[in-house]
Design brief:
Elements (H helix, E strand, L loop, with lengths): L1 H26 L9 E7 L2 E5 L15 E4 L2 E8 L6 E3 L6 E4 L4 E4 L5 E4 L5 E2 L5 E2 L6 E2 L10 E4 L4 E5 L7 E5 L2 E3 L25 E3 L8 E4 L1 E3 L5 H33 L4
Antiparallel strand pairs: 1-4, 2-3, 5-18, 6-17, 7-8, 7-11, 9-10, 12-13, 13-14, 15-16
Length: 263
């Protein structure tokens, strides 16, 4: 009965992690470029009371043994990088990646971060950056006096300036992709991801080539969180939590009955 108490407790702790993850998904349902997370579980060690294949007195072996598990634990919380719905904004600096890939950003300490959030702005010097002031890399500077900016599906950036009939080519935006996107580190928040050993090194390339997605101007990628799906997962997690708590209650009542036994 003591074993059941501790085993049920691991189930409650695991489901609390699951509910925390679902809560974060729901909280970011409208976050641009957000990718939902999923908790994976694994069972704990087993106590072998009678191993399978044990020889009996008759010289035969038993086909099945006795093993008691010790509960469950979260094995990982993985990001799910499925695509989100596209929202048309009409803003020329709103960019979306159709397919695999990430924008590159330069952090204040020189570190490169990666994001799917293409809601870019332009500062007073014409540099394209995020709302937090992290510049896009490779750097892209727009002339202060411009009439129209155009970003092609292949990342080509051009502007039309006053007094010129032909557009002026400013360069090409490049994207990166990773061998294992689930291994990226999201600890910074702010829609930023960092490279890790698990993710592998990034491969930089032009949009539309080598498996990298294309860029679409005037659109944003919404979160890939499906509210109905998350609510269903929340109900399942809540019921699993309640079931584990019932096991603790039943074990406690059994211990109480054992303590009340009289000769």
């Amino acid at each position: 009965m003591n074993r059941a108490l501790f085993t049920a407790a691991t189930g409650m702790i695991a489901q609390q992690t699951n509910i925390d993850t679902i809560a974060n998904n729901l909280a970011n349902v409208n976050t641009t470029g957000f990718k939902k997370s999923r908790v994976n579980f694994q069972d704990l060690l087993y106590e072998t009371l009678r191993p399978a294949g044990t020889e009996t007195a008759a010289g035969t072996t038993i086909p099945e043994g006795i093993q008691i598990g010790h509960g469950v634990r979260p094995s990982s919380v993985a990001k799910v990088f499925s695509g989100g719905n596209l929202i048309q904004t009409g803003n020329p600096l709103d960019l979306v990646i159709e397919g695999d890939g990430f924008f590159q950003l330069e952090l204040p300490d020189g570190t490169t971060a990666y994001t799917r959030d293409g809601a870019f702005k332009m500062n007073q010097d014409g540099m394209i950056m995020t709302v937090d002031g992290y510049p896009l890399t490779p750097a892209m500077n727009i002339p202060v006096e411009f009439e129209q900016i155009s970003v092609g599906s292949d990342g080509t950036v051009s502007v039309r300036v006053p007094g010129s009939s032909a557009p002026q080519n400013l360069g090409t935006l490049t994207l990166v992709r990773f061998p294992n996107t689930a291994g990226l580190d999201a600890r910074l928040g702010r829609n930023l991801l960092l490279e890790t050993q698990a993710s592998g090194p990034p491969t930089e390339g032009q949009p539309g080539l080598d498996g990298i997605g294309m860029i679409e101007q005037g659109f944003l990628e919404n979160s890939n969180v499906q509210v109905v799906e998350e609510i269903i997962h929340l109900i399942i997690a809540q019921r699993a939590y309640e079931a584990s708590s019932k096991v603790i209650q039943a074990s406690d009542e059994m211990l109480q009955q054992a303590n009340n036994v009289r000769r």
